[in-house]
Amino acid sequence: MIQPRTLRGFRDYLPDAMMPREELINTARRVYRSYGFAPIDTPTLEYAEILLGKGSDETDRQMYRFEDHGNRDVGMRFDLTVPLARFAAQHIGVLGTPFKRYHIATVYRGENTQRGRYREFMQCDFDTIGTKSMVADIETALVIHDLMTAIGFDSFTVRVNNRQVLSGLLEKLDLVDKSTEILRALDKLAKIGPEKVAEEMQQAAGASAEQAAQVLKLAEIGGSTDEILSALDSLVSGSEKGEIGVGQLRELTQAAAAAGVPAERLQIDVSIARGLDYYTGTIFETFLGELPSIGSVCSGGRYNDLASLYTNQELPGIGASLGLDRLLAAMEELGKLEQRTTPAEVFLAYFDENSLQQYLKIAALLRKAGFNVELYPEAKKIGQQLKYADRRGFKVAIVAGDRELAENSCQLKDLKTGDSKTVSLAGGAEELIAAIPEILRGTA
Amino acid sequence: MIQPRTLRGFRDYLPDAMMPREELINTARRVYRSYGFAPIDTPTLEYAEILLGKGSDETDRQMYRFEDHGNRDVGMRFDLTVPLARFAAQHIGVLGTPFKRYHIATVYRGENTQRGRYREFMQCDFDTIGTKSMVADIETALVIHDLMTAIGFDSFTVRVNNRQVLSGLLEKLDLVDKSTEILRALDKLAKIGPEKVAEEMQQAAGASAEQAAQVLKLAEIGGSTDEILSALDSLVSGSEKGEIGVGQLRELTQAAAAAGVPAERLQIDVSIARGLDYYTGTIFETFLGELPSIGSVCSGGRYNDLASLYTNQELPGIGASLGLDRLLAAMEELGKLEQRTTPAEVFLAYFDENSLQQYLKIAALLRKAGFNVELYPEAKKIGQQLKYADRRGFKVAIVAGDRELAENSCQLKDLKTGDSKTVSLAGGAEELIAAIPEILRGTA
Question: Percentages helix, strand, coil for chain A, rounded to the nearest 5?
């Protein structure tokens, strides 16, 4: 006999974990589609040469890589960005631009699992490719906002920044050559404080004390969106790049407000930097008001050229990725996940073997009316059946023995309160169809 | 520069292929859930020892197998049945029985692609585990029926058989030891005709001419469900197994009729055999009325013991699998797939850069009303934008230039007919929200 077990870093999803996952994916899909993003999929396996060297050294090392049956060097995708780049380069002629896609799929990284990370996880990306228009940046912010509210969060903040603001400032300060070192130091601000950051800027990047102080001014900027924008205006004044960046932040925040996004949900945060090499304009991170410590649950930004490794055609774009697993972990921690193991609300007890056809008819009528109904498959003791129904998380139970069926009626039981009432089956299931929603709404 | 390409046997799904795929998956999910089946997922990668030897020699050979970063011998799943067996053995204590699950996931087989097969494809299974009750068999038939109608097929036949009927007959004829050879011969009936089959039964299985003739009687049985059942009654009479099998077919067809399944959609077909070793009772295949030649699009059956390789606990069950790719191929051939590359119905032209905020407001109001709306990101010539909208398959376009917006109105264009009318934007988008569905329904 073989021991049933999963590989380290991989996991089974039982119904209680899979149901909220499916719901979250459906919500994301619905919101993406409402903005005209279309679904695509790409293979799990790709030529290794397509995948290698497109992420980081770390992703290269973590990639599951092997020889296939035809001795090809293949790898399992470790993200959805590299496959998108390959896909866009290959198909953009057919797809046309602007091309708006979402891609919800599993990716694989043979990484160290000690950080509580998994080797197989799902990504949930959306991107607009082939346009530099700020409309795409604005809509990305709106999608993130709608996504978070559709999932059920009231309190969250989409933090937005623009890489050109910092680039402009560094240009103005003659520090362009040292951007990476400056950013690396700035990134430690929350951890080590401004003095140490200034020190590091001077030592590692060769900045003067005055230059370091100027860069740090950026991090001190706060207040309302208008206040931040005017502080940024003066800070970058004279740098074309910086002025463009601030202008884009202004356009984005004003347009989002016009589209109905409350100011507290979209805030400029000049301290976020993200993917130093990849992003070139607008960047986003999203934090939960009730659990900011879990980190950004939806991040992304604008890039100049998606697929330069596979095509000469310039493909600018902007996109973001919903952190599905992180979000589910947060929802669990916040008690936002219902503990159920059935997708059906209605449990139909199997009381009397001779009445099976009647049970099947009742179930069929209820399903036609839009309810999810499970008929228990065995005529076990009713107490045992109701215990099963309760444990799985059904909302109502229908119990009909010979006596009830002879009277053309059934018992409808609220599994939460334990209340039960007699409902007539005369003329079909009309009365049941009316009575069940009252119990589901808690207004019976 | 690296040539962007996919591996042989793998494919990209562009939006026109991915959208109907997503819709089909959603339909399957909805139907499964309506019967109380709950979703699960298992890892793509498993220990090779879990996967090997559980399918056939062929699946073993086709399995993608390699050493992972921890030098473990791992494989990519080649179906969802083996992972289900491992999953059930591992978790049945927590899950409890009856356990009804669906699993929609990608599987991998490094097989010969010359037959038009793919090395990565999706399976869409549902199973009821832990009960021998015929209720589960009946519901499996009902799920298949509801699934086919929900997908949009009117004309199809679920063919049902019961392995015990044939076993009983062979028992009665003293041919049990030769079951495999007899079945193998019988399986060729349509191809080589009854005389050659009888010959093979005599040569390969050592049956007498009389025995072969008796077995072939089975294949001659036809007529209405009642006629078939009474012919089977006399054929198996005296064999306990055979009588049980016919009794189960009778119970299943009668119950399905009571639950509303038309007789022509559920037919007994004693010629279907399926998976000689695996199935032990009810078996199903499903054929499209308009395209039977494409083969069964939903098949399955009852098995005695799902997970005997991983646990001593006996886990009987029944399930079936929707042939997603085959069904999509059939739908394409039958012209049932809409040719669109956008999930949005409403195209909002971007006419005037100064009016962006107004466009964003209109789009937000329409999305709130449940429409999928794409705002074109660039203020290009209107002809170019409408050409884009037409090519992608949008249904309506909203065009609002300075003049229209100054008058608080817009043009609403039916992209199918080319008709256009002026709609007021006074007080929001109420008039648009009323007018768009008329065009979508074709009743404008």
Answer: 45, 20, 35
